[in-house]
Amino acid sequence: MSATPKPTSSEDIIGQKYDRCLADLIVKAGVGFGAGVVASVILFRRRTWPIALGTGFGAGAAYADCDRSFNPARIPGTRIVSPTELAPASK
């Protein structure tokens, strides 16, 4: 038995990111839905728009997190360093 870990394939990494995004979408949209239902019942005389708004906010937040997961260059303050920029610094 070898102690070296098996390298993770790129398909597995993408699959894990999609799974994390889907779970995040379900949780955040569910929380938004719940907050919308509470707001609808307590504040807005049982209208439906707070439910849709809360669910949309949750789904939008999950979409933004997923977008940052797949494209880290969109995170504010992140700089992508090319290999040519790294070469002089390592000497």
Automatic annotation (TrEMBL):
Which taxonomic lineage is given here? Eukaryota, Fungi, Dikarya, Basidiomycota, Agaricomycotina
- Any keyword GTP-binding? no
Q: Which keywords are on file for this protein?
A: Membrane, Mitochondrion, Mitochondrion inner membrane, Transmembrane, Transmembrane helix
A GO cellular-component term linked to this record: MICOS complex
Species this chain originates from: Ephemerocybe angulata
Please describe the quaternary structure of this protein. Answer: Component of the mitochondrial contact site and cristae organizing system (MICOS) complex.
How does the protein's chain sit in the membrane according to the entry?
A: Single-pass membrane protein
State what protein this is by name.
MICOS complex subunit MIC10
KW Mitochondrion (keyword) present: yes
Per the record, the similarity remark reads: Belongs to the MICOS complex subunit Mic10 family.
